[in-house]
């Protein structure tokens, strides 16, 4: 007697068809050469719409880049986050028995969540800067909104005189926004930049 998991799609169809025409459970089991419990389970699954097709998931052409290739592509991106699709395609085809196109690389990058994004700009902080900022935050962490009303904050704007900001694009996942490799550190005072701002009188000056 065959179990339900051993039945082919044809045998499952025979059970469903025989039972739908009025055949009894015993007659169907004898006709298909399976147990009565198997007939009941297959026919009930068909009535509930949960019959599993053994060929499901196997249709269509296989992917040009398998799991191993995806891991290699991730390593290439992390080694050079500014690499273009053309450069990544060249690296993936080096020493490969099956070549892939730029379109395949682009689709794989999107499927892996490695989209092209702008660098996150953050101030260039030393260990001393981080320590002082932490001390400042701890010192005034208990202040109320009334106390902060007597504090003046500077409002600055920067205008580039000789060059652009140089917005580089990199590839990263959404969770890698604050990863050190995806941050472009920037000093507060850069050559060729004009700073302007305004301030208001207050008891405490915060810059």
UniProtKB/TrEMBL annotation:
Predominant localisation class: nucleus
Localization (cell): Nucleus
Signal peptide as annotated in the record: none
Protein's UniProt name: Transposable element Tcb1 transposase
Any single Gene Ontology cellular-component annotation: nucleus
An individual GO BP term: DNA transposition
InterPro entries to which the protein is assigned, alphabetical: Homeodomain-like_sf, RNaseH_sf, Transposase_Tc1-like
MF (Gene Ontology): DNA binding
Organism classification: Eukaryota, Metazoa, Ecdysozoa, Arthropoda, Chelicerata
Occurrences of domain Transposase Tc1-like (ranges): 71-140
